[in-house]
Amino acid sequence: MVGDNIQNPGIVDIRKALDLADDLGLDLVEVSPHADPPVCRIIDFSKFIYQQKKKQKELKAKQTKIVVKEIRFGPQTDDHDFNFKLNHAKKFLSDGAKVKAYVFFKGRSILFKGQGEELLQRFVDELEDYGKLDQKPILEGKRMTIFISPKKT
């Protein structure tokens, strides 16, 4: 048992600990149940819950959120459309987002897998200064997909 109001922290019988907490007008809270012996603290329970929520909120705020932006191509995408989408990808990567680029094959266009792979490879080559390829082109159903991560600066 530990706490702010405890003179000699140590191993105490549960009844004695509950009585001591009751005398102080506080609660006996099990802080770490997996320790041997379990650690309890005499504190105000609502204050304890508030502090835990505050810690979790701070940890959540410190987490980095990974944003994934998608760019879709057809197997026979023209140069102008390619450059337009390339500029968007450059902006996404410089903002710190990952880019998922894929070629969507409709109907019989699945016959042009080679063209789709060439298109994605050209896309990766153009973005070499902005990001690095995470995953080689993979064909999943009617989609050939790649992932590009921004380069660390």
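The record above closes out task 2.4. Task 2.5 opens with a second protein, given below.
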Amino acid sequence: MTLDVKGAIASIERCLREASNSFAEDCYGRSGSDDDTFDESATEYYVERSFVELLILLESLQLTETWRQVAEMFELAKKEGLGKSKMGPDEPYLFWNDKIRMFADGVAGIHGLGDTAVSEIRDLKSVIRRSVYAICDTAIFSKPPAKEADVHDRVEAILKCHFADLKRKPALTKPIKNFEPDTGIPSIKTLIEFKFVTTKLEAKRVVDEILADTSGYRTPQWKNLLFVIYETRRVMPEEDWTALFRECELGSNYDAIVLSGDAKLGV
């Protein structure tokens, strides 16, 4: 039986994401409440499951020394608390999640799978692509998005169901001139910028804005920058957009996707 390393890494990613979501709900879901107590059981469950799945994967791959290191770390985590957190530059984060992710990324890297953040960006893009049908559904909204703010509000509401730690207009540790991100997801260190396009002329302007944003974007706080471009109708074929993005020479930590308001033409 062939070991499915990709599937195993994906399962660990899901556990890490669920732990982060549960932790975020514990931290931020109680705003306005006088009750400071909360149940950490879900967060701890997913952290523990991440450890267990990582250990099983390492054992299957016969990485004995790495298995020993993770096993020792697991025992320490159980003593210090599986839900242990530390304060980052702007907000608390799950301490053991970062440690588990480091080992999972190592295994993914040697198998040519990329790191866990790359995989989670793929999941994020998939959610955003599917969201176009909901944000344009006149049975839900009175009319399709009429401006950038409409796209921002509607897509962000959907993403919040998948990423509980999502932040609107997140503050940057080191502010960047003329750049204020629309959305941030700390658990996958990703910023999202929304763009609204109605004509080919505006499409060229958006590409110029992307060039300006990526040239000024330098911060360890956020690893990835995703541009979500919404066309009110199919302004350009997908291959033309791809060609324009190629001109931007986006680095590995930048990406862009295009949503078309005319769902009949696809996205």
